[in-house]
């Protein structure tokens, strides 16, 4: 057992982080949040050219021939960077929907009663008949509601796991932002990070993120349904509570539109609804406990 | 990332499994929880069995991964836990191995490994718990001996211990962390009085230890005089390292038993309870993965457990309490019956967020040492 990132995996993570820092920085994020959500097709094609969608396709089909662990690392980074767009659906469509692998075709997916980015998509996985737009709580993720669709959603393991990876990225980023702020912001003549109440919020954020990380990476290695369900629950918790605590550490500044904390929180809410939400995972794990001898 | 065994690990696991299957059926019955002399004899007997089969030094002689496999397999097979040997094997032994002189290593280590001698930990005092450096038990030099007076509290297994890893103040004028010394004190020395304390679980698991001019040979000092705080940090890093690994495996087993019990008594039909159990399954799966991650990291960085131990301890101690609280809900009214399984475990789980550093102190450690936030409370 060597449960650590290989050098290649570390290099991949660094490379994706750099790419996103260059193409999707704080300024781009703010500009996007200022107006109505719009998919940047040029960026989408660049991501396609960089291989983000074709990552798991065999090399014979023009992919990178990499596996779930690598996909998880990439999705963790896109989660961290708060990259908008139907990344998951397009990634899942690579190899089946022409043009998805290269980013030329933008693909949306129906997930239970919700569809992300329907209007921007060239192709849709699932049946969006009758979909009506709703005023999305996440300014960077347009949403449609599909009337009459079952609430369960598709708990397709790869989709659930990659969503968990994005949540993990958000959780790690939220912890980092909180720590940065806690070191810099002074009240009562000292950095607020010296106060135990703030310190403990940050410590708990890290504990949740690191526990989620172990669960998500392990699920990427085993691909076992119970591991994926566990990863999902831990990563949702780390992202939902982490972004909320991050907002708390930022105080009034956290409640302003200018601070990016709320964007992370809202995206975490959107992802937590995918695949039927945590209830599906909890029931699956409970059933798994009784499935043995 | 690789979660599978290497060929050597696989071989070690298979050999250990085979040996456990052979030896476990021959073990005597477990003594009752209140029979301390019986528990001592039982735990030492198990240590001797391990020793004779060549597994004695797995806690500090072997690689972290080997140790992980050992703990996983022994727990899975239902083998005895370290029990009364906890302090000797998991922190006094490693500390002496790291900081002791050749003579000290020769004097104590073989006995710990062979299971002849039990150790206890005399760190905490009535006025020095979380603030351990406030300890006041005094020791002064008299010829070849230190003379020790003061008192310790919450000393686990003190009643049945042969030796105590004792922290004393040797220089009351030095800054708090500077005047402390680490001594190995024989528990049968004149002037040592052990008064058992009843825990909230009803048993006498720990004790008060009164020290009245106890003579401890200066040769029993590990590390330099007044350098005991540094030695203590070595001890504490071992204490928080992988000490709980076997327990995570045990908790996963308990959770399976709990699910079956709920199915049998009809509580499984309650979706709220069922989902809570599902969430706990996720929790303990993740804690097991975190352990594997920490062990792989420790191995890559030379075997010393890092602050990852605090991250794990924080999460695990609360998860364990949630597990047994859930057990009580599965049991319903029987959850108040001390003769039922899990009810005593529920009581003892209450200590997990206190012993070996409270959750508040662990959070300080994580925030300051891992996240680099400024010191100050
Ligand atoms: C089952 C059990 C076995 C034990 N075995 C041993 C043993 O074998 N040997 C030994 O030496 N000791 C042992 N201990 C003692 C244990 O290490 C101490 O209880 C522990 O370190 C806490 O110290 P305290 O009890 O004095 O609590 P206190 O330090 O008085 O703390 C009380 C409360 O105040 C909080 N608190 C204290 N300081 C701070 C702070 N700076 N910031 C925020 N909150 C704070 C704590 O978190 C806690 O909630 C054992 C304890 C238990 C429960």
UniProtKB/TrEMBL annotation, chain B:
Keywords: FAD, Flavoprotein, Oxidoreductase. Residues 120-213 form the Acyl-CoA oxidase/dehydrogenase middle domain. Its cofactor is FAD. GO terms for cellular component: plasma membrane. The lineage of its organism: Bacteria, Bacillati, Actinomycetota, Actinomycetes, Kitasatosporales. Residues 226-371 form the Acyl-CoA dehydrogenase/oxidase C-terminal domain. It comes from Streptomyces collinus (strain DSM 40733 / Tue 365). Belongs to the acyl-CoA dehydrogenase family. Residues 6-116 form the Acyl-CoA dehydrogenase/oxidase N-terminal domain. Pfam families: Acyl-CoA_dh_1, Acyl-CoA_dh_M, Acyl-CoA_dh_N. This is Oxidoreductase. GO terms for molecular function: flavin adenine dinucleotide binding; oxidoreductase activity, acting on the CH-CH group of donors.
């Amino acid at each position: 057992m060597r449960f650590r990132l290989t050098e290649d995996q570390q290099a991949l993570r660094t490379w994706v982080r750099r790419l996103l820092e260059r193409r999707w920085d704080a300024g781009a994020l703010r500009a996007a949040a200022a107006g109505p959500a719009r998919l940047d097709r040029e960026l989408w094609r660049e991501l396609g050219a960089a291989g983000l969608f074709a990552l798991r396709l065999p090399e014979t089909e023009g992919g990178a021939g990499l596996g779930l662990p690598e996909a998880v690392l990439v999705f963790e980074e896109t989660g961290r960077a708060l990259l908008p767009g139907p990344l998951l659906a397009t990634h899942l469509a690579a190899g089946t929907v022409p043009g998805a692998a290269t980013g030329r075709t933008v693909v949306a997916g129906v997930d239970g009663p919700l569809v992300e980015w329907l209007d921007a998509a060239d192709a849709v996985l699932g049946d969006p008949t009758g979909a009506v737009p709703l005023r999305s709580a996440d300014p960077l993720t347009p949403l449609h509601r599909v009337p009459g669709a079952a609430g369960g959603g598709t708990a397709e393991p790869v989709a659930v796991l990659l969503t968990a990876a994005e949540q993990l990225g958000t959780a790690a980023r939220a912890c980092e932002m909180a720590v940065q702020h806690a070191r810099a912001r002074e009240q009562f003549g000292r950095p607020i990070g010296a106060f135990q109440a703030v310190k403990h919020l940050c410590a708990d954020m890290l504990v949740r993120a690191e526990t989620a990380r172990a669960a998500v990476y392990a699920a990427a290695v085993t691909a076992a349904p119970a591991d994926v369900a566990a990863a999902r629950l831990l990563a949702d918790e780390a992202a939902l509570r982490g972004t909320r605590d991050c907002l708390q550490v930022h105080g009034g500044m956290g409640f302003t539109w200018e601070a990016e904390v709320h964007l992370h929180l809202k995206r975490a809410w959107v992802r937590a609804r995918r695949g039927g939400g945590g209830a599906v995972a909890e029931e699956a794990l409970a059933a798994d406990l009784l499935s043995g001898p | 990332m690789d979660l599978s065994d290497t060929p050597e690990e696989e071989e070690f696991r298979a050999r250990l499994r085979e040996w456990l299957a052979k030896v476990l059926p021959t073990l005597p019955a477990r003594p009752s929880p209140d029979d301390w002399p019986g528990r001592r004899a039982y735990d030492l007997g198990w240590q001797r069995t391990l020793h004779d089969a060549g597994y004695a030094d797995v806690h500090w002689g072997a690689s972290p991964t080997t140790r992980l496999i050992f703990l996983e397999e022994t727990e899975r097979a239902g083998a005895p836990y370290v029990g009364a040997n906890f302090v000797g094997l998991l922190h006094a032994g490693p500390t002496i191995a790291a900081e002791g002189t050749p003579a000290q290593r020769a004097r104590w280590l073989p006995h710990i490994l062979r299971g002849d001698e039990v150790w206890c930990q005399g760190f905490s005092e009535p006025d020095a718990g979380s603030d351990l450096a406030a300890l006041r038990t005094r020791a002064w030099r008299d010829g070849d001996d230190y003379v020790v007076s003061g008192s310790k509290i919450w000393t686990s297994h003190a009643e049945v211990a042969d030796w105590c890893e004792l922290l004393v103040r040797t220089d009351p004028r030095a800054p708090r962390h500077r005047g402390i010394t680490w001594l190995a004190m024989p528990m049968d020395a004149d002037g040592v009085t052990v008064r058992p304390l009843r825990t909230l679980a009803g048993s006498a698991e720990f004790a008060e230890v009164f020290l009245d001019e106890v003579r401890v040979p200066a040769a029993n000092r590990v590390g330099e005089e007044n350098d005991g705080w540094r030695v203590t940090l070595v001890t504490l890093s071992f204490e928080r390292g992988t000490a709980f690994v076997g327990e995570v495996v045990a908790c996963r087993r308990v959770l399976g038993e709990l699910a079956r019990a709920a199915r049998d008594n009809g509580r499984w039909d309650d979706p709220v309870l069922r989902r809570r159990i599902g969430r706990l399954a996720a929790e303990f799966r993740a804690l097991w993965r975190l352990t594997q991650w920490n062990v792989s990291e420790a191995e890559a960085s030379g075997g010393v457990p890092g602050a990852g131990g605090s991250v794990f301890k924080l999460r695990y101690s609360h998860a364990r309490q949630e597990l047994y609280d859930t057990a009580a809900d599965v049991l319903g009214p029987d959850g108040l019956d001390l003769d039922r399984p899990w009810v005593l475990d529920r009581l003892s789980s209450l200590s997990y967020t206190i012993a070996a550093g409270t959750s508040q102190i662990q959070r300080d450690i994580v925030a300051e040492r891992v996240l680099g936030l400024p010191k100050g409370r």
